[in-house]
Every structure is written in structure tokens, then in C-alpha cells.
# Entry
Amino acid sequence: MTETRFYLKGGSRAFEQIDGEAAIQGIPCRDAAWFYSIGSLWKGTLSRGHAIRGIRLPEGASFELYRNGRLKGFIAASDVAIDETVALGGNPVRLYDDGDIARFTPAHGFQVSGIHAMDGSPVELYPGGRPAMFTPANDARIGGITAMAGTVVRLFEDGSPREFVTAVEVDNGIGLFQRGSRFFYLDGDTIARIDPANSATVNGIQCRAGAPILFHYDGGLRRVFLSEAATIDGIPAHPDTFVLFHPNGRLSACELAQDIAISGVACMGRKWVGLHPDGALKRCFIAAPITWNGQVLPIGSWVSFHPDGAPECARDEVTKRYLE
# Structure
């Protein structure tokens, strides 16, 4: 029998507390049940074993339904058979509206495009069963890449790699990356990020192992973390810091390794400097006093500049007062 029923404000959903067991819309439930605003069952917990849309779930399984009554997902304490696939108990399973599996954790022996997936690791599938994410049990050749065993592989719907850890050395025209480096793509051809396993050289810049290398949407370099000092566009960058690049490939920002004059302004070393896309100074901490609007800005002041070189804003680092 039912004990208590609640309606949310606006009647968007209802909650029903259950004392013992209740058959709700043909499904044996216990503890509580939730409903859609149209009155159909949304989610609940089975009071005994029951088949929902051809999938038999054990007692105690929590389930969720689509508005049309089809099974959307569940968590069961024991393994559950879905067609010829066995989902490992204790892990969430998600289904598409047509009943195809969207996400599950295989108990054993599941293959993705002929590649054995690691037992006990989650698998995601696109509609129709195309692989979206899985963990290969062994090094595997997938869509032109070789993925390392025991690491997550993500794929686009066309099967091209979206994210993977390489099992072999890769020379992709950007740099030479050793086994264990992770790659991320915006699409099948455009690189978005690389987490190098080694200290790699990219565009003549030595990048620190393990630090992400980021790219703009067109594939141009966006950010790297320096493993050693570098001079970029004539600007000495301090090691063990990251540097940023504009989409046109010019330096955008870095920490200066030493005092240097940029666009005729003395900039302080071991401080951050910003540059416009044409290389002109955008902002820095000044290493020598400058006069602006009749005011003398002392050494160490932060100053930003228009593309034409004129100061536009400043902050006295002693008083923390902004000047405009």
C-alpha cells in the first residue's frame, strides 16, 4: 500500500512513499517512486525481480524510465544480461530510447570493433552500437592510432580518435612524443591538446613532460609549459612557466627571464608581460619610471598599452591605486 504522496510546486512531478510493496503501473516497487508531470512512472526501486522492456532486473535494482515507459537506466547489485551482453553489477547502465545500450560496464568478454575491452571498465556507445569510449585490454590499433592497454580511448562517431594514450612513439609533425603521451582532438584532424610523456620540442620550444600542450581551434599552438629557458619572438621567457600564443602564432604572454625593453618600454624581469598580436607591448611591470598624464609612474608599476603604444591604464604596485 502507499503511505504518502507529494507534489512539487507547479505539479511538475510527484513523489510517492511506499510502505511495503506496491505495483505501480505494472512494476513492483518498494520504498518510494517518482513520477513525470504527465503521470507516468519516472524512477523507483524494485521490490522483487522483474523484467522491464525485456531486461530482467533483480530485487533491489534502482531504475529510471523515459516518459514513454521505456527503460532509461538502472543500477543492480548483481550482473544483468542485456541481449548477448552482460553488465557488471554495482555499476550504472544507461540506455537509449530505442533500447540500445548507451553506457555500461561489461562483466567479461566484451569486444569493441573486434578489440577486447578491459573487464570491469566502463564502455560508452553511440546509437547503433558504434564505440564512443572504452578501455582496451591490450595495445590496440584503432582508426590509424595505437592505443595503450588499460587507458581510456574516446572516438568520434566516424571512428576517428577523440582521445587516446599512444602505445608507440608518435611523430605527428608537431613533435616527437613517446609511449604514454595522451592526445585530444577537436575532430578527426584538428589537435586540441597533448599531454606529453616526455620533454618534447614543439616549434623549437622545449616543453615539460606531463604538462598539457594546448592548441587553438585551427591547430595553431596556444599554450606550452617550458622545461627550459627560451627566447620566443625575441622575448626571453623564464623556464618552468607557461607561455601563451595568439592565433597568428605570435607570442601573447610569458614571464620574462630578465629585464628587457619592448616597444621602447623597459619591462621588469621575473614578471608577466603581455603582447598584442603584432608583437607590440600590451602590458608589463615597468623596470624604469615613465611619465604619463603628468604623473611619474615608479619602477614596478603595472601598465597596459594601446596597440599604438600609448599607455591606457596603470597601477602603482606600492599604493595599489589605479591611474587612468
In short: The chain has a mean pLDDT of 92. The chain is about 0% helix and 50% strand. Residues 126 and 157 are 7 Å apart (CA to CA). The longest strand covers residues 14-24.
